């Protein structure tokens, strides 16, 4: 059986190592984090993913997976390390570079090296191949270099690693086939073969497609606010056309993929990637658009009490990375006029630099609830409980998810339908 060395034991590398180990491969997993390595060798993991603890325990106990701080000789190397963005929105490929350098001393002719990390176009040619060449190998003849981007969804990683279609792009045709054959031993979905740069671009374009389409929905929302149209209704009706799929507007785009990957394209072709950059700008402008509405809604209140609901970048997860909700909360908290409560049933206090409140605390005496994330809890809010506890029962739903209906005692504004947005009035005069 082939031996695989997986470099980077994070959200993708570790499940990948586990899936190959379960299929019978001998796996050594490498990470620079000592704690990750020590725990893994005891069959324990420090990340959360459905089903993963069980599979890892099984393969570690069976001697199929072990961890190390250093790479070692293997038939196949899989590099799965992060590619964060710099302050100036260019990709930081340092981890890919250092992982490749760490692998090189253990390389032998005929080895396969696969990069799974999301990388800017041409990184395989311009960053990875030169390191291999410097080490004395011909990257087009002696070893087989390929990019195989991951495309799994957290919570379903073990299933999607096996069932999703994979794209494999090698530096040469032979490298493509060699790398694709590695995946064919565990993947039940299709394994599609292409060149390295095409594989790099297709991964980036998948997430860019979504980002651009969300930007279109967000732009529609702003147009609708100006023209007095309900954008949600427009989207619902337009999407009845068999070839139209307008996405959903919201408070912005978060997560470590959609909010990051489009910049990898802009970086390499800034003069051409105009729509991609503009879409990033539109989505990045949404937190301020939400705050503008909060300011309009509370303009006539002296010290408005505001409950902000939801911090994660999407519903029913605990991930706050790049979340637009965090930006909104921090800006609202910075405004001394506002008395703010923040509530998210999926987030623990130590994840964020401000205090969190319970649902009860947040709604009691509130003038306004702003929904920023579509958690199930916020889809099923009980209007009577809100009316009973809030001071003025006004909801601003930026995810159009609450299911709350406008009624005499309850005012509901949705992000795509701001036609009737008016300042909240209180019966008592505000000054004196
Ligand atoms: N969002 C909207 N409107 C929409 C859809 C999403 O505002 O109509 C927002 C969400 O609220 C969230 C953001 O976009 O803030 C991203 O959410 P998502 O669920 O679209 O994407 P991710 O980042 O969780 O996962 C994506 C997936 N890519 C695609 O769907 C094309 C996933 O398959 C990839 O594996 C992942 O990126 C990745 O690792 O690249």
Automatic annotation (TrEMBL):
At the top level, the lineage of the source is Bacteria
* Residues annotated as domain UDP-glucose/GDP-mannose dehydrogenase C-terminal: 307-404
Q: Does the keyword rRNA-binding apply?
A: no
InterPro entries linked to this entry: 6-PGluconate_DH-like_C_sf, NAD(P)-bd_dom_sf, UDP-Glc/GDP-Man, UDP-Glc/GDP-Man_DH_C, UDP-Glc/GDP-Man_DH_C_sf, UDP-Glc/GDP-Man_DH_dimer, UDP-Glc/GDP-Man_DH_N, UDP_ManNAc/GlcNAc_DH
Keyword annotations: NAD, Oxidoreductase
Q: Name the protein family.
A: Belongs to the UDP-glucose/GDP-mannose dehydrogenase family.
What protein name does the entry list?
Nucleotide sugar dehydrogenase
Lineage, opening ranks: Bacteria, Bacillati, Bacillota, Bacilli, Bacillales
């Amino acid at each position: 059986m082939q031996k695989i060395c997986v470099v980077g034991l994070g959200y993708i590398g570790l499940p990948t190592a586990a899936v190959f180990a379960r299929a019978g491969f001998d796996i050594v997993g490498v990470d620079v984090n000592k704690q990750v390595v020590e725990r893994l060798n005891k069959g324990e993991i420090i990340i959360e993913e459905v089903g993963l603890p069980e599979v890892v325990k099984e393969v570690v106990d069976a001697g199929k997976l072990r961890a190390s701080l250093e790479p070692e000789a293997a038939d196949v190397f899989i590099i799965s390390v992060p590619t964060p963005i710099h302050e100036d929105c260019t990709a930081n490929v340092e981890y890919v570079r250092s992982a490749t350098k760490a692998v090189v001393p253990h390389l032998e002719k005929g080895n396969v090296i696969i990069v799974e990390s999301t990388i800017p176009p041409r990184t395989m040619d311009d960053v990875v191949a030169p390191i291999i060449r410097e080490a004395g190998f011909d990257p087009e003849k002696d070893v087989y270099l390929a990019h195989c981007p991951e495309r799994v969804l957290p919570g379903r990683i073990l299933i999607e690693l096996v069932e999703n279609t994979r794209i494999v792009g090698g530096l040469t045709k032979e490298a493509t086939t060699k790398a694709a054959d590695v995946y064919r031993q565990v993947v039940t979905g299709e394994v599609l073969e292409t060149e390295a740069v095409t594989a790099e671009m297709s991964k980036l374009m998948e997430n860019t497609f979504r980002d651009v389409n969300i930007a279109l929905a967000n732009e529609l929302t702003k147009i609708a606010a100006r023209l007095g149209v309900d954008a949600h209704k427009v989207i619902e009706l337009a999407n009845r056309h068999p070839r139209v799929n307008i996405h959903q507007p919201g408070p912005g785009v978060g997560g470590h993929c959609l909010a990051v990957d489009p910049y990898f394209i802009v970086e390499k072709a800034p003069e051409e990637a105009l729509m991609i950059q503009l879409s990033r700008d539109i989505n990045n402008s949404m937190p301020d658009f939400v705050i503008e509405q909060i300011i309009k809604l509370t303009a006539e209140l002296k010290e408005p009490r505001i409950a902000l609901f939801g911090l994660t970048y999407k519903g029913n997860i605990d991930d706050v990375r790049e979340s637009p909700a965090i930006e909104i909360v921090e800006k609202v908290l910075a405004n001394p006029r506002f008395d703010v409560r923040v509530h998210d049933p999926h987030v623990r206090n130590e994840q964020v630099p401000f205090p969190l409140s319970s649902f009860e605390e947040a709604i009691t005496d509130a003038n306004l609830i702003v929904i920023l994330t579509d958690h199930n809890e916020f889809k099923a809010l009980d209007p009577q409980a809100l009316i009973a506890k809030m001071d003025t029962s006004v909801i601003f739903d930026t995810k159009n998810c609450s299911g709350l209906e406008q009624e005499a005692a309850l005012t509901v504004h949705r992000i795509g339908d701001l036609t009737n947005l008016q300042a909240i009035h209180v019966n008592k005069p505000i000054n004196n």
